[in-house]
Structures
1.
Amino acid sequence: MHTPLANIGEFGFIDRIKKQATRKNSSTIKGIGDDAAVLGYEPNEKVLVSTDMLVEKIHFDLSYMPLKHLGYKAVAVNVSDIAAMNGIPQQITVSLAISNRFSVEALDELYAGIFAACEAYQVDLVGGDTTSSAAGLVISITVIGKAALDKIVYRHMAQPTDILCVTGDLGGAYLGLTLLEREKREFLENPDMQPDIDRFASLIRRQLKPEARLDIIHELAELGIIPTAMIDISDGLASEVLHLCKESGLGAVLFEDKLPIDKETYNVAIEEFKISPTTCALNGGEDYELLFTIKQADFEKIKNHEDISTIGYMQKDTAINLVSRNNQVLPLTAQGWKHF
Ligand code: ADP
Ligand code: MG
């Protein structure tokens, strides 16, 4: 089916969305349907706001990104920014610029992904804007979250000797993208070929359906841990470590053998692309894991956590170094570990 958007019109389209936007959070007083949404936060809650814009051909490629995944990812990356402040997301607004090649069915797919993420992260879709675009698709999402003032975690508060921690594993999303781009290239050269991506499903999933680590934010609260500093890993671990260090006025030491790299990431990096798994972990983007620092005194509480790795420590000396497996000390740079 390819129903032109003009058939139902902008108001018809907004009506469809409004029907599906159910309220989950008491901070949502009025959602879609008036000139503005109305939100109400408790006196002890601070309000966090963050926006991300995704532009077709720049941030995503619809030839391998299904619209449903795009909708989910666009919400997840916003939720990740609230998680990185140690906050809980509450509402989103979604603004779209769409060209006339998008049908009602295509937009339904996009919103199916958006609503799936709203469910997964318990956020309310409370508004947005819809406009036309001459060419590509643009999605801008604003997320609103909450946190008590004394629980908010900034990038600049890390202290010397704090332990650097990272959630999940790294480098998978980058390899997922590299695999998808390889398949696309091969398909363009030979349209009869069958895509060979099933055996890489888990890495491709890391690229197409990343998850914000809101689960870790809840777990840290249960463990009684407030990180001293935190950032989400969108541009690669190395770049985010440099941000934390710069903002905190400190340096850091990381250990190569502590970097969390999944077995499949490791194998695909070496066997399919002949690149270093460490480089993927340090410089591959879009993992949306969390990088944070904790006081030494909190180490006991997380040392057995399956999904948190301790990868190094902060230091007063502003040098930022990586200690390799064979004990070489190499300066960490955002472009990658030149040595490889
Ligand atoms: P206005 O002309 O006042 O900007 P609109 O007709 O654009 O109002 O929007 C009507 C309602 O629908 C508002 O509540 C708005 O937030 C919501 N809305 C518009 N576009 C979207 C969208 N793409 N996704 C979610 N809500 C939307
Ligand atoms: Mg409007």
2.
Amino acid sequence: MDKERRIPVHVAIIMDGNGRWAKRRGLPRTVGHTQGARTVEQILEDADHMGIRYLTVYAFSTENWSRPDTEVKALMNLLRTYMKTSLAKCARNNVRIRVLGDKSRLDKDLQVAIANLERDTASNTGIGFQIAINYGSRDEIVRALRSAAEKVADGSIQPSEITESLISDNLDTRGIPDPDLLIRTGGEQRISNFLLWQTAYAELYFCDTAWPDFKKEDLEKAVDAYNNRERRYGGLIS
Ligand code: IPE
Ligand code: IPE
Ligand code: MG
């Protein structure tokens, strides 16, 4: 089995359950987020060792701004710390970082840190690590369509040139293959506005494990489940 195990090229994860993880322990929700950030670092390493080429994680959605101010601030500070401390690690592990989402709503210093991190890891050739921050799939599609509409308006393309690949090329994930496997931790079974276009044919895997408890074995279980799926893409099996 192990020998023939297919490793998905691109795994996307909705990292959910941090708050409930903390609450169960009588701790503030933000402690769950801190622990969740540690899980991200570990799982990135594990995914890389397993041979996964792209890992995309949902860190903060366009809807998460509606949470209490203190929680939003704590999450932004965690991301800030991550951007500052991860560069050396990325260089060591050859990780290429890209942030998905509308960065314009983020604090200026965070925008600068992200731009630096993306620039300084751009030529790394190891695992591609995408972090979705202020990301909403509908917002991303709207931005992509606006940019296509602008090209039509200025005459650089015809409406007939708006194709699936043109839209893909205008999404934040441009150049990255669509996810093969989408995992959601924390027990909920929904997509919550994540990669709606890109997951058209992804295999979906839901597990009850809260994100702070998610380990390499859980990732392996998800990959095993993926191996038991038959991807048909609308066709017939031969
Ligand atoms: C996921 O955990 C992290 C973010 C959405 C930022 P939650 O904070 O949603 O945790 P639960 O779902 O309330 O347990
Ligand atoms: C999805 O989790 C967003 C992230 C993991 C960043 P949420 O906890 O925000 O989603 P809902 O509210 O359960 O749909
Ligand atoms: Mg949640």
